[in-house]
Amino acid sequence: MLNAGLLVSKKAREILGDDVLRTVFDEARLSYVAEIGDFIFEDLKQNDVKSLLVVNEGSRETWMEDIDQRLGISPLAVTTIPYTWFENKSRDFVLALLMGYSSRAQLMDLAYRVQPTRASTISRRSLIRLKVYEYKPYPVLFDEVHAEREINKAVEACPLNLVVKAPEGPSVGSPEKCTACGYCSASSYLGYFEVPTATTDQVVAFINAVVRYYSKPASLMFTDGMPSQIVEGVFPFVVPCVASVHDSFVLASYSAGLTPIIHVSSSCGSKEMALKRLEEIPSHFPGTDLKVRKAKDDEELRKALELPLLDLGKSTIPSEVLLHRSRRRSLLLWSIEEMSRKVSMNQEGVVPGVYNVTVDPNKCVLCGVCVRACQMLVPDLKGNDSLELTYNIPYCIGSERCVKNCPENAVSVTGFARISDLKKKTMNKTKVAKCRICGKPIGSEKVKVRVDSMLISQGLQGTAQYTDVCNECKQKELTKIWLERLLSGKR
Q: Fewer Cβ atoms within 10 Å of its own Cβ: the N or the C terminal residue of the chain?
């Protein structure tokens, strides 16, 4: 977590109050809180602040222009919100919103992986300051990812064909051309390709802060605009573009007890991609009648805000959810499990992005090829006296590596999974074949039978009699036969 600071204008300080600011400083464990003044540069430097939340009149101020040169703070790690959001609001709302954005500010580390690009427009002022570059929040790699399907999905999703494969995962090949819509990130399954100012960790931290500090019915609004006014109970989570909002973000907010609203603003610079993503986001929480509120313009947002907020009970998202190697998939599964505790779910409800797999037990010989092929560790083969092939369906991302590599053509991916499919399924069982000489396990009985039939069909009956012998005993037997032939003079 970065050292984060909170700066407020004089008017913002009057509205927020020192008591709330002191509470946020203590409970969010910020490195620095102050009213904006001439002294802040020295203070920020001394406190090694690398991320800032600024509450002011709602615009970027002049002193922010050189913050990267003077303090080494990335402009992407500076979040500005207007003090009007806090006017005439309850203390709980003010505290929850500040805690949410403070928690988000501490998780801006990916902003420092973004390289500046040549500015698309250059003003006379910026030219005098030699400011001929800008920072775009284009997606960056959270960590190395080796799931082929995840990488390919991100590469294929880019409307400008700018995302390329790299040894460690996907990357934006030409950042200066990227519109930073984030659609490639939202289209992926696991969340290793992140928009640095709206990461999975930031969303979860924001949700948990709202849940902990605001007990009344509330809504989480994903918006790519900066509304000048908001209503009590609606917490705006500003993103560069709605096209970057992943399904798991929406479902997790619902399961945590916050009614989700997704809003495409009139100021969106990638509106076509935002509307495309808005259409793709589930209209209902899977397996329920709970609607996801979508607004493709400001008028639809007004109507969405007039609807009453649901009270499903609040839940915090456990920290271990994002420590799972599947990240966003783990978050999505937590959302469904948590929602099932709050409402009755239709087990036939389809879960977009999660794929169902079937295995024909009459064809499958439990050879284990599918286990070795899957990068998501969905199939597993275990057993002592008997072997059992299982598929952990909730983590299938539809790569079909098991389908393509199965030598018996026994595996099929049948489409999106249903709620009832979200479990570990036993696909096939067989006895373990053991060496008839020493009793050592040698593999699946079905594999032995299959190999026997293949050898016999090729006229190799003599070889077939050794398929139930382990390699060590087989070597001993063949050596014995060779010696007997040698001693008897036979060749």
A: C
Amino acid in position 81: I
- Answer whether 65's CB lies under 8 Å from 131's CB: yes
pLDDT at 128: 47
Q: CA-to-CA distance for 125 and 288, rounded, in angstroms?
A: 55
Phi and psi at residue 42, in whole multiples of 5°? Answer: -65, -40
Contact predicate 334/317, CB 8 Å: yes
Answer whether 24's CB lies under 8 Å from 98's CB: yes
Chain position carrying tokens 């003079």: 489
How far is the CA of 447 from the CAs of 163, 221, 409, in angstroms? 43, 55, 14
Are 276 and 259 within 8 A, CB to CB?
A: no
What is the DSSP-derived secondary structure letter of residue 111?
Answer: G
The encoded tokens of residue 209 equal 């802060």
Q: Phi, psi (5° rounding) for residue 2?
A: -80, 155
pTM of the model: 0.90
* Alpha carbon distance 170, 191 (integer Å): 11
**Residue 23: CB atoms within 10 Å:** 17
Task: Show the tokens assigned to 223.
Answer: 């918006």
Using one digit for the tens of pLDDT, what is the confidence trace for 297-356?
A: 999 999 999 999 999 999 999 999 999 999 999 999 999 999 999 999 999 999 999 999
Domains defined for the chain, CATH in brackets = 4-331 (no CATH), 346-431 (3.30.70.3270), 434-487 (no CATH)
CB 316 within 8 A of CB 211: yes
Length of the chain: 491
Helix or strand or coil: residue 333?
helix
Handedness of CA 274, 280, 286, 288 (dihedral sign): positive
Read off the amino acid at residue 460: L
Element (H, E) at 350: strand 350-359
